[in-house]
Structure of NAD(P)H-dependent oxidoreductase:
Amino acid sequence: MRVLGISGSLRAGSYNRQLLELAGKLLPEGVEFEVYDRLADIPPYREDAVDAPEVVADLRNRVSASDAVLIATPEYNGSIPGQLKNALDWASRPFPDNSFKGRPTAVIGASVGLYGAIWSQAELRKVLGLMGAAVLDEELPVGQADQAFGADGGLSDTDGEAALSALVSKLVDAVRAPTAP
Ligand SMILES: Cc1cc2nc3c(=O)[nH]c(=O)nc-3n(C[C@H](O)[C@H](O)[C@H](O)COP(=O)(O)O)c2cc1C
């Protein structure tokens, strides 16, 4: 089984990237984890583009080659970062038969605010649901992210790390035993 991880932040030292990498380590043994690394290269979406740029075709291929997708999103002004939304707009086409269709997908998020990107996680689940992904009805808010990680890259809050572990297990379960759409 292969899980594709996408961080919605382009920031060097991103807490969401850290959270995603931690989630990858908590996946059951034998599950391959790839972190998507080309978000910054995705051009602005154009509906009249005849052929998708190579980087977009690559994104769609990587999503299609995965059994599940895990996205870590920051909150920007109560919503998801524009570059993440732009990439998902590309990935949503052609609609409805896009690379996310029916694919188990989970959302997690970190922010330096108190609420742990809870609004952006809800917005992201909405976007993914409209795209046709099989979105897990779970969230993993990491608030005060600037203080949330220990030197080993784990979460200082052991309950939070257990919740992250449970969430990635549910994502794996969703691949092994898909529910009817
Ligand atoms: C444009 C912008 C808007 C932001 N809006 C919010 C917000 O609405 N809520 C929040 O909790 N944090 C907000 N933040 C702070 C982010 O939580 C913080 O920058 C966080 O570290 C981003 O995630 P990253 O570490 O993965 O880059 C905002 C940051 C930026 C740059």
